[in-house]
Amino acid sequence: MFGTTLYSAILGLSSKWRISNAAVDESADCVEIHIGTSRDAEFSCPVCNGRTDMVGDSEHRWLHDDLFSMQLKIVARIPLISCETCGVNRVKAPWERPGSNFREGDTDGEKEESNIAS
To answer: How far is Cα of residue 56 from the mean position of the Cα atoms in its chain?
Structure first.
């Protein structure tokens, strides 16, 4: 694999996000990318843009059916954050922007998994 720089650019990843693995399955015409956040990443509240604390994360999956004539699957740990005003919310991932053609969902039969700090 030639690295993850191209995938980071396509997905619009800032330094808050990191690709932990990218694998090509040529027989299935599919690329699967695993994404998490940097250890020191801080996120604003997606509702009020206020200060937050990270309280956990949850695994989510997205699929793009035709990126360079291949399927692109994303498996990502998305932060759960707590805002004093708005409560607990999930951070919006950069590839969820309007017009990105990624759809969230169960891409291969596995259930979402959450980790919430106690």
So the answer is: 14
Q: How is the chain split into domains, by residue range?
A: 5-107
Q: How long is the chain?
A: 118
Give me the chain's average pLDDT, please. Answer: 88
Rounded distance between C-alpha atoms, residue 74 and residue 33, angstroms:
5
Composition of the chain by helix, strand, coil, percent to 5: 10, 45, 40
* DSSP state at residue 96: G
For the stretch 84-107, pLDDT in tens is 999 999 999 999 988 888 999 855
- Determine if residue 99 is left, alpha or beta; phi over 0 gives left, psi from -120 to 50 gives alpha, anything else beta: left
- CA-nearest of 77, 17, 81, 79 to 52 is 81
